[in-house]
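#struct-pred
JK: can someone run the complex with 5-phosphoarabinonic acid? inputs below
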Amino acid sequence: MKNVEIDISQAIPFIEESRFGEMKEKVHSLYPVLLSRKGKGNDFLGWLNLPASVSPALLKDIREDAERIRSDSQFLVVIGIGGSYLGTRAIMDALSDPFSYLKNNKSLQILYAGHNLSEDYHASLMDVLDKYDYSVAVVSKSGTTTEPAVAFRMIHEHLVKKYGKKNAAERIIAITDASKGALKSQAIREGFRSYIIPDDVGGRYSVLSPVGLVPLAIAGISLENLLEGALSMRERLLRVPAGDDNPAIQYATVRNSLYRLGKTTEIMVSYRPDMYYFIEWWKQLFGESEGKEHKGIFPAGAGFTTDLHSMGQYIQEGLRMIFETVLSVEEPNRELRIPVEDNNADGLNFMAGKRISEINRMAELGTLLAHVDGGVPNIRIRIPSQKPEFLGQLIYFFEFSCALSGYTLEVNPFNQPGVEAYKKNMFALMGKPGYEKAGEEIRNRLR
Ligand code: PA5
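RT: done, structure tokens with the ligand placed:
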């Protein structure tokens, strides 16, 4: 199998050699801390083994459920938020035809719910669910997160009205904790099919567990290739002693060296719109893992060349606190060439016969140099092509790098204490029992 590779040659010139050396030493010293499970948050390291620990029996169950659901549903509604849905959406979008829903395609499509609290979004979704046969995968590790719980309550009611209680239950798969949470209790009570999110795997590191595997299999994605890719990256990163060719060590070293130089924002860039949600997944992984104790690189995202016509100006000439990491896909899956035009009215005949991907590649290389010249260091992640095996490699690479990078920042990369603050205020404002006093105080502040 070909490999995802990292190219840091356009970032290195920005970093003093001795500083880079010190950081490299620090990252190297943290690598065994991660692997020997002696670092912060070490009870959440189950993801390290995920691609290897998915058993044939689990895959068989998933495949059987996928076949059943595909035979009686036109849509699968994935209900979840944050790590419980972003990985699925990232892989789905990266591997799907963006216009399949307009092509009279009979294959099952995925719809998403419970990742926002927009009334209009969910009302509009219900209009679709009125008309088509569908099933639901409700994903929540805690089983108590408000957004998916609200969506599931509505969609569950809709399912029961449409199919009756017993048939509705057969259309629901709950993916949740082994024993805790409201969703688990409901799944047992009502007889939903359910899958377990391992205790030691946190939401944003869970895409290779049933959280991602179940909906992706239902959508027809090859789990074997995805897991094989992740496994090959795991073997590569766990090869001890970790040498200079370890891409996760290189990535963690470069981004933390740049951070200490005041480059506090990392923009993850893709030249393909179908990677938009992959970047959203990466933003969540790094943002929730590193942004704490008033520290952390701010993870931003951009889609080029589209955003070169909006954010390009800022990146080229704005405040110099940015570095860029480009997801560079080497081979497209389809072929499309620029036609010749007799009168050459648009002056584009110099491109005639060339593939669109070649123009995209020249845009990428030209932008890379322009941004480097403008003071924006560049890291390039080279991806042979957009296939499940390379997405599997990328996922494991970023998860491992994120853990290592979080340790370099001396934070716990596996918790997210900061996300509780908005929830407390929301519950207080909604009048949740137990929040009466807080509710009064907040209302006074909002007057
Ligand atoms: O990474 C995380 O832990 C979070 O983003 C969670 O995935 C998210 O908050 C959803 O939580 P839950 O799966 O408990 O509903």
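RT: quick notes.
The first helix runs from residue 17 to 35.
Residues 81-84, 140-142, 145, 148, 202-204, 288, 416 surround 5-phosphoarabinonic acid (CB under 6 Å).
JK: thanks, will look after standup
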